[in-house]
Amino acid sequence: MAENLREGLLLGMGNPLLDISATVDKNFLEKYDLKANDAILAEEKHKSLYDELINLYNANFIAGGSVQNTMRVTQWFLEKSKVASYMGCVGNDKYSKILEERALTNGLNICYQYTDKEPTGTCAVLITGKERSLCANLAAANCFSSSHIEVPENKKLIENAEYIYISGFFLTVNPEVIQTVAKHAYENNKMFMMNLSAPFIPDLFKKPLEDVLPYVDILFGNEAEADVFAKVHDFKTTDRKEIALKISRMEKINERRNRIVIITQGSGPILLVKDNVATEYPTTRIPEENVVDTNGAGDAFVGGFLAQLIQGKDIEICIKCGIWAATQIVQTSGCTYDGKPDFKL
């Protein structure tokens, strides 16, 4: 463990959600107009989905939310608790207690904002074969207010963090907070990182994403998100190396470091663009029978990556650790893990 690891070094901000995970058939997806390997926000037509999963499909409850998953995985790799902190909004209910308990068990420093206006957010995780479809009912997560980052102890967490990671999902909740934190990172030369999170983010939230992108030092995304980003910005190419290169060259305010772009492609190679050079890293092949589901794989990849990044490791080691973490997570249900990680440099 690097000697410079300290409490509060890394800060994550996002939507804390309790995953309600169940195996369903394709007819169930069609009933609720959902697609495999997609992530959407719940609409009126999805309201009965959650009770149906719980009552008829023997659903499991798993602590979730993209950034919280990532922070938990990062902590898994570290020998010191509370190196990573996490902010998001939850309800005053039993679901938030489950989230809190799991996060604390994993060594994460949680700084939830609590609201009585809405229940804790939930995310339906619909497993069909090895694929997963996510349908998030943000509820309380939508209530995250700017006042939370003005609370002295929370403001201090932001000031103390050297690395800040925020999901694209959070753009649907409070883009003003993201702008505030992004500007703080720029003014203090901190590493500011984001994830595209889902194909609908670069599509339906193009403007808030464009507003924050100039501050982003490292941008993560998967192949579907990258493809939509390219289409929305009229890149006139479907070559993902070209797409990643073009994203890396978009306006960047902090010129002290070039933007790094990392695109995951399922079981395909990881695509890295750094210093205007595109590199591919092969993923680890897992026997088909060992794959339980892909839920949380992307979150775990970023978690493994960040665990090495904040220790000052080379980008290649960060990516290899991310790949290792993702391969572990797809062999369990949801973003869960047991024992100590035995990733070797």
UniProtKB/TrEMBL annotation:
Enzyme Commission (EC) number: 2.7.1.20
InterPro entries: Adenokinase (IPR001805), Carboh/pur_kinase_PfkB_CS (IPR002173), PfkB_dom (IPR011611), Ribokinase-like (IPR029056)
GO CC terms in record: cytosol; nucleus
Pathway: Purine metabolism; AMP biosynthesis via salvage pathway; AMP from adenosine: step 1/1
Source organism superkingdom: Eukaryota
Top-level class of the enzyme under EC nomenclature: transferase
Gene Ontology terms for molecular function: adenosine kinase activity; ATP binding
Catalytic activity: adenosine + ATP = AMP + ADP + H(+)
UniProt remark on cofactor binding: Binds 3 Mg(2+) ions per subunit.
Catalytic residues in the record: D299
Location within or outside the cell: Nucleus
Pfam family of the protein (one): PfkB
Cofactor: Mg(2+)
Residue ranges annotated for the Carbohydrate kinase PfkB domain, each copy included: 28-337
GO biological process: adenosine salvage; AMP salvage; purine nucleobase metabolic process
PROSITE patterns, per database record: PFKB_KINASES_2
Keywords associated with the record: ATP-binding, Kinase, Magnesium, Nucleotide-binding, Nucleus, Purine salvage, Transferase
PANTHER family according to UniProt: ADENOSINE KINASE (PTHR45769)
Family: Belongs to the carbohydrate kinase PfkB family.
Subunit structure: Monomer.
Described purpose of this protein according to its UniProt entry: ATP dependent phosphorylation of adenosine and other related nucleoside analogs to monophosphate derivatives.
Protein name listed in UniProt: Adenosine kinase
Organism: Vespula pensylvanica (Western yellow jacket)
